[in-house]
Design a protein that fits this description.
This protein is mainly alpha-helical. Helices cover 44% and strands 9% of the residues. The chain has five helices and two strands. A two-stranded parallel sheet has the order 1-2.
Length: 108
């Protein structure tokens, strides 16, 4: 599936795809670093994850999932993100708590 997405989304970054562009491209001024990727989570991030886990209105029979909450927070920190997921209701529940400006969820 990763390689199929890489072919369709040629100008996008598809993690783990061989021919995928890096998420942050170099410039004439040098290689810039993505602050959200370079820095580890701080206390504020962990609090936001805890709030998302505690306040998210998950679908019935679903339990809080720290990985899904972290994916949602990572997308919020990056901004202008698209999350491809097989559990769109879970991710959207966490995003509702995190209140992103420009994050989209695409079911796969």
């Amino acid at each position: 599936m990763i390689h199929s997405l890489a072919g369709v989304l040629k100008d996008c970054t598809v993690p783990q795809a061989r021919a995928s562009e890096p998420p942050v491209r170099g410039t004439d001024a040098g290689r810039l670093e993505c602050i959200a990727c370079v820095t580890g989570p701080d206390v504020t991030d962990w609090r936001r994850i805890g709030a998302a886990l505690g306040e998210a209105e998950l679908p019935p029979k679903k339990k809080p999932d720290a990985v899904d909450a972290w994916v949602a927070l990572s997308a919020v920190k990056h901004g202008s993100a698209v999350i491809f997921t097989s559990d769109p209701e879970d991710i959207e529940a966490y995003l509702a708590v995190l209140n992103p400006v420009d994050v989209h969820v695409q079911p796969v």
